[in-house]
């Protein structure tokens, strides 16, 4: 029996898989020995905590409906293209459909209990929101930010079509098209950009000064809204930029900041309530 099989035999398989994906973003079979030991410790700890949760008085009246369980099962199943791939993945991790449903039932029940406990947390008051706002002024002074799209043509000498010369030629052709039809930026990004953001029409996001590559940063913050840059070269290759929106620097008012402050503080109260409750659970 190899190390993976031995570990699966000793630790609840679904908890082991969940810990592996959380810690290393890959299943147990792809871990090295050190990573597997860390995942095993994490899984054992999680399973122990969950077992204490399920033995608690709060768990006694909790019911997981068939609809809730079916939704959880279908969410996992939906990550795979077909039943064969799904069944093979389960088998590699010591699971089958029945064991997966049992593990999901357990997880759903634990989640419901923890939500029940979190609901006991106190509500955040207006006074607390005001105190937070006035004692954290740096959090509400927003610098100027710019929304930007880009088209990237990479440079990679290992591929003829991505030699520096060929890549420069391709970006120049796109630049010429945009000079005539700037409204086609999204379409051209979708068709030609070699960045994953091509699927979003080249949208990189909203950035403050100093957060992007220096060459992009310098060009972007010299542009006006809707401007399209000249060719910008970085270590990735060649870019064309479009300044989509300019968000001026501002200080958020208490009125505008209050919903986010309430959300952050309420979530903190909920976590603290759960931690205190968990700490008081018996290990028996």
Automatic annotation (TrEMBL):
**What reaction does this enzyme carry out catalytically?**
[protein]-peptidylproline (omega=180) = [protein]-peptidylproline (omega=0)
What Pfam families does the entry give?
A: Rotamase
Say yes or no: keyword Protein biosynthesis present: no
| Entry's Gene Ontology molecular function annotations | peptidyl-prolyl cis-trans isomerase activity
- Write the Enzyme Commission number(s) for this entry: 5.2.1.8
Q: Which domain of life is it from?
A: Bacteria
Q: Start and end of every PpiC domain?
A: 143-245
Main EC class of this protein? Answer: isomerase
Alphabetical UniProt keywords: Isomerase, Rotamase
What family classification does the UniProt entry report for this protein?
A: Belongs to the PpiC/parvulin rotamase family.
Task: Quote the protein name from its UniProt record.
Answer: peptidylprolyl isomerase
Organism of origin: Methylotuvimicrobium buryatense
Gene behind the chain: nifM
